[in-house]
Design brief:
about 450 residues; binds 2-acetamido-2-deoxy-beta-D-glucopyranose; Stress up-regulated Nod 19 protein; Stress_up-reg_Nod19
Length: about 450
């Protein structure tokens, strides 16, 4: 698997977002921001047709300019008339918004950039979030999936994610943003959930986007639903081509010292951390986030059937050392359907943030039956939830294990598989990773 695919993939699956206040500046006033700007932007339009996957990469997107503090980013799919499109027509696999610095001398013709992840690149330098994954993997600042409409993303005052700080933009470069959007047009598909899980057989895909054969053990995942692939339709279904946009709404404040900067950390439950020595500087932690993972189903297990909800759960955990100090200001997870919850624990077992999905029950946009339409988020009282340098955090994600899901990575090993009530596992299933991101705040809550 190439890094490129891995990067793109990461965008997708499961995320917990935590915003962490880490800086040590003293006194900050807790004034509220009276003037919050809010602007709706539309991505370039892209075409889809029934079953079709659009995986779009747009560089130098419209984004608020200047030295500002982002308070919220939300997005949804709309058609050309601006009408919201439900998930059962256009499933939002994910969107991610990533920061980079572009060399000024580079001719700015963004339409000439390929429709793919271009990083690493000498003229377009990715500026990743504060952690936790390696290199360009899971590097975005903002991004969600099907839960986007129903998930709170506002960062409380006086905090914000600082962008456009001229001191952080090297000479000869400009700060830019790119967006990656992956949509699956579910109109008329034979197996909605299978298409959402990117099952290779439904896409009739045996080779990856670069034309290399996928191992037979790879049953599904992002390698099977790349741009322009098509999921199997019901016999005889016909539907029109349509153009869609991602509408993204950005809220921000002008930067000044009353705003406390948060840093964004995203944790991936597939991250396996290797420790190496860094000489005098002590241990170095090498992350290896895989983005997607696979579980096996316990479909045919008869034990625990009396309690359907708990009868068959899959729990995945990973331990991740944290190398900063800070207070959690915001947190939330990204899971795919079937997700039960995702939780970040401190070294002493305390819950730092636990986030749960909400499933739709109707037809209307934002409440699509059976879809994961929202995630709960954490807003601890600022100053009440602290993580410390050197603390080993545990990230846990729980999925129901009873329905068949697609396997994802062939070389994917299950770590810390701890299947409650699932003694004999059969049938590979796909699961998603779980990211947890924390943002850091500098502030008056910290002493010293
Ligand atoms: C930008 O690139 C596109 C695609 O390569 C090309 O068609 C177009 O003419 C270019 N525009 C400019 C202003 O160079
Ligand atoms: C699936 O792919 C194979 C090989 O590319 C092709 O021969 C076959 O017609 C495809 N089947 C469908 C249903 O598209
Ligand atoms: C799996 O479990 C969930 C939650 O208990 C339930 O809603 C769903 O119908 C089950 N699916 C199957 C195939 O048993
Ligand atoms: C996550 O869900 C499982 C299954 O319902 C439950 O046992 C567990 O307590 C939940 N975790 C948290 C932190 O709420
Ligand atoms: C479950 O059991 C049925 C009947 O014994 C069998 O046909 C099916 O293949 C089994 N499913 C899995 C996932 O093993």
């Amino acid at each position: 698997m190439s890094f490129v695919s891995q990067d793109c993939a990461l965008s997708l699956l499961a995320t917990i977002l935590l915003l962490l206040l880490t800086s040590q500046s003293s006194c900050a006033s807790k004034k509220t921001h009276t003037h919050v700007n809010s602007v709706d932007f539309l991505s370039q339009k892209f075409e889809v047709e029934p079953g079709h996957v659009a995986n779009m990469f747009y560089y130098d997107i419209e984004f608020p300019k200047g030295h500002i503090g982002i308070k919220s980013v939300k997005a949804e799919i709309v058609d050309e008339a601006g009408k919201s499109i439900p998930l059962y027509e256009a499933y939002v696999h994910h969107y991610i918004i990533t920061k980079y610095h572009q060399r000024k001398k580079v001719v700015q013709n963004t339409t000439a950039l390929p429709n793919r992840w271009i990083f690493p690149h000498k003229d377009y330098v990715l500026k990743r979030n504060s952690g936790m994954c390696q290199k360009e993997v899971i590097s975005h600042f903002f991004g969600l999936g099907s839960e986007s409409r129903g998930t709170r993303t506002e960062i409380p005052d006086p905090y914000a994610i600082e962008v456009g700080n001229p001191k952080e933009i090297p000479q000869g470069f400009e700060e830019k943003w790119m967006i990656n959007i992956q949509i699956i047009d579910l109109r008329g598909v034979k197996d909605e959930k299978g298409c959402m899980d990117c099952r290779c057989n439904l896409y009739n895909v045996t080779h990856n986007e670069e034309g290399l054969p996928l191992p037979p053990t790879y049953k599904g995942g992002f390698l099977c639903c790349y741009h322009n692939t098509k999921c199997q339709l019901k016999e005889g279904f016909e539907g029109a081509k349509r153009s869609l946009h991602l509408k993204y709404t950005v809220k921000w404040v002008e930067w000044d010292h009353s705003v406390l900067p948060l840093e964004v950390y995203v944790f991936d439950v597939t991250d396996s951390v290797q420790v190496s020595s860094n000489g005098e500087k002590g241990p170095r932690f090498n992350h290896n986030c895989l983005v997607e993972y696979e579980i096996e189903s316990c479909n045919n297990i008869t034990t625990h059937k009396d309690d359907d909800d708990d009868g068959c759960l899959h729990v995945k955990k990973t331990r991740i050392p944290f190398e900063n100090d800070g207070y959690v200001i915001y947190g939330g997870a990204h899971l795919h359907f079937g997700g039960v919850n995702a939780t970040l624990y401190g070294q002493d077992g305390r819950v730092i943030c636990s986030s749960k999905p909400e499933y739709g029950t109707g037809e209307e946009v934002g409440n699509e039956k059976g879809f994961l339409v929202g995630m709960t988020t954490c807003y601890p009282n600022p100053g009440s939830v602290k993580v410390v340098d050197g603390e080993t955090l545990t990230l846990e994600s729980v999925y129901v294990g009873n329905t068949s899901r697609t396997g994802l990575m062939n070389d994917f090993t299950l770590l810390d598989l701890d299947a409650i009530g699932c003694k004999s596992l059969q049938d590979k299933r796909g699961l998603f990773n779980l990211f947890l991101s924390t943002a850091r705040v500098t502030s008056g809550f910290l002493t010293g």
